[in-house]
Amino acid sequence: MQIERLVLHQFRNIRDLSIQVHPQFNIVHGRNGQGKTNLLEAVYLAGTLKSFRNARNQELIHFDEKEGAVRAVVKKRELTRDILVQIKSNGKHVSLDGKRVRNVQETFGQLHVVVFSPEDLVLSKGSASNRRLFLDRAIFQFNPRYAGTTKSYDNALKHRNSL
């Protein structure tokens, strides 16, 4: 699978950007603060519906704007999918091929992304829960049902612990 086109609107410090992505190799370069990491964050958001920086929704929207959006046109085998994530301060709205997604698990597996950033170096020395979360997010990409199973397990664990 690959991203064919990426469109950003009012996303972090990027007002409007539309790029055709080369299927084999892309280089992103620029000075500090120009939006290179924000571009990568937009790709991650399209695949996971979350920021790898653990940012709040309002932080994903360009300063002084009310909403932003990330659209990724993804080709998987012979199928082309259009993922649209609209971001508002009170939440995200996701559409897949123009249809509103009610269950976010429907989008998992459309775009496989895994980020390993300098902040993730603590995974080897940090808590086991952080390692599990990192692995869970990677597995969600390949097995979307795992997200529902994990959520059910977490709920059962919370109920057990409260008892």
Taken in chain order, the helices and strands follow as EEHHEEEEHH
Q: What gap, in angstroms, lies between the N and C termini?
A: 45 Å
| Widest sheet, order of strands | 2-1-3-4-5-6
**Tally the helices: what do you get?**
4
Brief synopsis:
By secondary structure, the protein is an alpha+beta fold.
Name the descriptors.
about 160 residues; single chain; alpha+beta; six-stranded antiparallel beta sheet; 4 helices
Describe the protein:
- 31% of the residues lie in helices and 28% in strands.
- The protein is built from four helices and six strands; from the N terminus they run ββααββββαα.
- The protein has helices at residues 36-48, 57-60, 128-142, 145-162; strands at residues 2-11, 14-20, 67-76, 79-88, 91-96, 99-100.
- β1 (2-11) and β2 (14-20) form a beta hairpin.
- The model has no long low-confidence stretch (mean pLDDT 90).
Please render the helix and strand layout as text.
Blueprint lengths: L1 E10 L2 E7 L15 H13 L8 H4 L6 E10 L2 E10 L2 E6 L2 E2 L27 H15 L2 H18 L1
Antiparallel strand pairs: 1-2, 1-3, 3-4, 4-5, 5-6
Helix pairs in contact: 3-4
